Amino acid sequence: MTAPCHHKITIYQIYPRSFYDSNNDGIGDLKGILQKLDYLHELGFETLWISPFFSSPQADFGYDISNYTDIAPEYGKMEDALQLIEEIHKRGMKIVFDMVMNHTSDQHAWFKESRSSRDNPKADWYLWRDPLPSLLRRGAGGEVPNNWKSMTGGSGWHYAEERDQYYWSSFLPMKPDLNYRNPEVKKAMLNIVRFWLGKGVDGFRLDIFNVIYKDAEFRDNPFAFQLAPTETNPSGFFQEAKYTLNQSESFTFAKELRAVCDEFGEKMLLGEISGDRETTRKFLGEETNDGLTHAFDFDMLTFKFTAEYFGDLIKKIEANYPDPFMPIYVFGNHDRRRSINRIGEDQQKAKLIHTLQMTVRGVPCIYYGEEIGMTNLKQSFAAALDPIPHKFKFIPPIFFDMIGLTINRDEVRTPMQWDGTRNAGFSFAEKTWLPVHENYREINVAAESEDENSLLNTICALAKIRQTEKSLQEGTLEILEGLPSGVLGYARKLGNEKIVILLNFEEKEKQFEFENAECILKLSPKDQTKNKAIYLGGFGGMILK
Length: 545
Ligand code: GLC
Prior knowledge:
The protein folds into 3 domains: 10-104 and 182-458, TIM Barrel (Alpha-Beta Barrel), CATH 3.20.20.80; 109-168, Oligo-1,6-glucosidase, Domain 2 (Oligo-1,6-glucosidase, domain 2); 476-544, Sandwich (Immunoglobulin-like), CATH 2.60.40.1180. It has helices at residues 30-35, 37-43, 78-90, 109-116, 183-198, 248-262, 277-282, 307-320, 347-359, 387-391, 397-403, 445-450, 455-468, 470-474; strands at 11-14, 47-50, 54-55, 67-71, 94-99, 128-129, 138-139, 142-143, 157-160, 165-168, 203-206, 268-271, 294-297, 328-330, 363-367, 476-479, 487-494, 497-504, 510-513, 519-522, 528-530, 533-536, 541-544. The chain is an alpha/beta fold. The strands form 6 sheets. The protein has an 8-stranded parallel β-barrel. A 5-stranded antiparallel β-sheet has the order 16-17-18-23-20. It has a 3-stranded antiparallel β-sheet with strand order 6-10-9, with no helix packed on it. The protein is built from 14 helices and 23 strands. The two termini are 23 Å apart. The longest helix has 16 residues, at 183-198.
């Protein structure tokens, strides 16, 4: 059986605000993406996931939508979105929109109406509850309805005087959660999905998809001895998210959503799901892949740079996502620290993790700028545009560094570094919406294109190999045993085709005997094959055919 097309994809995430500014207002836009399509096409990633650019007060930079079928003016117009779909398709590429279904902006007409009274037609479109008559849990308008904590800490209940009631918000107060137990809400949201599929969109990345349903009875969450959420355990703030996450109805909804997409052909549904691997997998289906098509595996974002770590990771992922399931390998996004900072901003080491990402059995997803090794830019909590740090500005940032939490997401959202000119070639504006990283003179697309051994050219070469080698797209994966310590090796096989990947995670050079094969990519100039001997430079690696 051949793998479905959507399992063979490579994904590039664009954060539109920071990608390319075509009208010099300091903010990236859709026309900017259009102007850079040839760059992306040449880079060799064919599926573009674009973070939200719909109408929004931008209180959470587009993840707070006030109209799902209109475009925010700073990003362009509907005709630009349609042109983008068309131009991407013309190049044989695919486009994935970001669908924020769990909540709207508090400025959405639905919420404004819902909030206005207890008996308007949309009164039950969000999660409204009466204040409690107890003396505990005091909130702004009396007692909050239960003990639930939001994903960003503190009670997620917010008081609205108009109704003398609280509304629930999983994330931030200006993003009220919709009530999916109301069939009208579900219908309205699925119609939005159909609207964009009808315009030719190839699928959606689904924002915090596993919080979509909450307990129907609003039962209190139990105590848990856990301060902060981690990649594998989304509970936190001393509470187990038992009634606020992963409710059985959310798994069923994944299948309903898939069925709607199937009406339009083979579409992608990429789930942002927090939690352990088993739960994440359940959103894709039990026996067959009839739920979401994919889910991101975020556990790997906290990797250790060793052959053992990655060997174990691959084994665990393989066990959890057997055929017909396919994982997504991801090392960065607009919410998490860029991974290159975990490896001392070392581009040679970055070549290794991206070679792994592009050659294992899985869909690779890279975040804009990762291909050139863009780094995080430390910025103060007080000056942050991101709303989250303002919740935590009284806690010294070093505390979050120690527990590995990204609080100020501005740090990972700085403008794309295109060249060594002003504003890194991102914009001619006086001031860009976030500052450009000062390392842009060295780390930029133009400079790295010139350098044969750059991270950019390596990633581009990897993408080309992946496009031509079927075994990398749909072959099996077998970890190779008996290699020198510090070296990770695996084979990808499809019929008679075989590709071998060898990666040296240590600074020490390695030499060993190996079967005769042609080397089709080297990561370090010191890597060599001679007869049956393999030489790998420090942090070197090769792909053999
Ligand atoms: C997701 C998005 C993030 C957003 C949050 C709430 O985690 O990636 O940027 O703030 O959901 O919508």
